[in-house]
Amino acid sequence: MKRDERAGDAPVPDPVDARLAARLAELRAEHGWSLGELAERSGISKSTLSRAERAEISPTAALLNRLCGVYGRTMSRLLAEVEAEPTPLVAAAEQPVWRDRASGFVRRSVSPPHAGLRGELVEGRLAAGADISYDRPPVPGLEQHIWVLEGALEVTARETEHHLGTGDCLRLRVWGPTRFRCTGPADVRYVLAVVLP
Questions:
Q1: Mind listing the pLDDT tens digit of every residue in the chain (197 residues)?
Q2: How many beta carbons lie within 10 A of that of residue 27, not counting itself?
Q3: Cα 58 from Cα 144, distance rounded (Å)
Q4: Cα–chain-centroid distance for residue 29?
């Protein structure tokens, strides 16, 4: 959320947040759910859902993950739905970047998802000390390959902690909660390869 000095310092939604908000409202309407029904299915309060759909807040990664689970989408697919139609070649400068300002997580869709394909590549960056938890995968059984390019990352899945350093790669299927934590003194940068089951 930005402030517009010309509008008396009123909050102005980020353009991506505004498109994301509109898409979230569309998805709920497509399913014919009220805010109350979506709140029950997602475990997110009606007020938070309402504010997210009106772009009054920037949704966190955890909130989007829960909504993706309810709507049966990966986060990349949801974010791609608010961008232009993906092309086969995506120049670095055109790769969509999304920031979770609350946690310090930066997510770059290196190869945006495509309806006819099952895999995608994502670059993740976590600030030193950042800690993100997801209560469930957006799609049960989602295959992930996590390759650390720089720094140190702790990934917890199925109550097992995996400590990854530069060059290490972890392969897993995600069925339940996961946690990503930057354990080093500097930021961590990693590639996440995601494959739908």
A1: 444 444 455 566 677 788 888 889 989 988 889 999 999 999 999 999 999 999 899 888 999 999 999 998 888 888 877 765 556 788 899 888 999 988 889 999 998 766 667 789 999 999 999 999 999 888 889 999 999 999 999 999 999 999 999 999 999 999 999 999 999 899 999 999 999 87
A2: 19
A3: 26
A4: 21
Tell me, what amino acid is at 9?
Answer: D
Residue 21 CB: number of other CB atoms within 10 A? 22
Query: Would you call 49 helix, strand, or coil by DSSP?
Result: helix
Interacting residues of 154 by C-beta distance below 8 A, sequence separation 6+: 161, 162, 163, 164, 179, 180, 181, 182, 183
153-157 vs 178-182, strand pairing mode: antiparallel
